[in-house]
Amino acid sequence: MSGFDSNPFVHPVDVNPFQDPSVTQVTTTGTEGLQEFNPFSARALDDLSGPTIPVSAPSQPAVLQPTVEPSPRAVAAAAQEELRKQQEELEKKAAELQRKEEELHNRDTSRGKENNWPPLPKFLPIKPCFYQDFNEEIPVDYQKICKRMYYLWMYHCVTLFLNVLACMAYFIADAQFGVDFGLSILWFLLFSPGAFLCWYRPVYKAFRSDSSFSFFFFFFIFSFQVVVYVIQSVGIPKWGNSGWISSISMLGTSKAVAVFMMVVAGFFTVNAVLAITLLKMVHSKYRRTGASFQKAQQEFSQGVVTNNTFQTAASSAAASAVQGAFR
Asked: Which domain holds residue 160?
């Protein structure tokens, strides 16, 4: 309780904080340690002479080599060398193609192209009569229309064969129509190869050699073929055609025969439609080729003059005329 009895307003006793025994002891001890340490003494030197750690030399910094761009002259020289190599390769290929073409030409000249149509077995004594190759002889722009004409000829032959069968059934159902059966056989034997020689081969030659004369010959013959198709589709009795009139007339006698004849009449009708369509297509192709009637006349006159038979006949006539004049 004595602490509470003291007067707080009385001046306190002056106390020196540095006179505290703990502080005095610490300061005295630190001073003595510093005074006793000598960095140049032998003990200090022994402490410093410990194991040394080798210091590695600092690595050299990475230095980027500057890119050296080729000069325009070097670029031009490299491009010229590349072009020279390409030109040499093209010349080699051209020489090889020319050599092969000459070999093919010499082979065709020496022995001629071997006929491949019609494709007959080799054991038969009859050999093919024509050479036909769309990819080799027909230009690319005309191959499609030329093949369509070939397919039309095949369809034409199939229709004539079915017409023979229909007319045979017509004759069996009614004996008075035997004439139609006989004529149908004649039309099949006559018009199948005749169509091939008269209008298909001319259009093939026209597209192959761009011949105006072949084009005009084709148009002249094929126009008659279109008319024949129309007559066959009509089917006039006793004309050897199984058309619409003949087939309708058989409805009262035999419906089965009448239906079969109607099918053949439909084939003839399709033939007529396809023929008219292809005639227009060939005419449009013909107008693009630059052919004309004057060119056809010129080709015909040149063909006649250069024909060996005509030359032989003309020379014989001239020789006989000269001999007669001298006599």
From this structure: 138-300
Q: Which of 150, 152, 189, 144 is nearest to 267 (CA)?
A: 152
Distance separating alpha carbons of residues 260 and 98, to the nearest angstrom: 58
Decide if 318 is inside a domain. Answer: no
Region for residue 290 given its phi and psi (left: phi exceeds 0; alpha: psi -120 to 50; beta: otherwise): left
pLDDT tens-digit series, residues 217-232: 999 999 999 999 999 9
Token couple for 129: 């009569």
Establish if 81 belongs to a structural domain. no
Query: Is the same domain home to 127 and 143?
Result: no
Calculate Rg over the CA atoms of the chain.
57
Domain identity same for 202 and 262: yes
The answer, yes or no, to whether the previous bond of 12 is cis (omega within 30 of 0) is: no
> Which of 266, 267, 283 has the alpha carbon at shortest distance from 223?
283
pLDDT in tens, 106-123: 655 445 578 888 888 888
Dump pLDDT digits (tens) for 30-85. Answer: 445 445 555 555 555 555 555 555 555 555 555 555 566 667 777 788 888 888 88
Q: Indicate whether 174 and 270 sit together in one domain.
A: yes
Alpha-helical (H) ranges within 49-177 are 72-111, 134-137, 140-173
Residue 183 counted as domain residue: yes
> CA triplet 200, 205, 211: central angle to 5 degrees?
125
146 located within any domain = yes
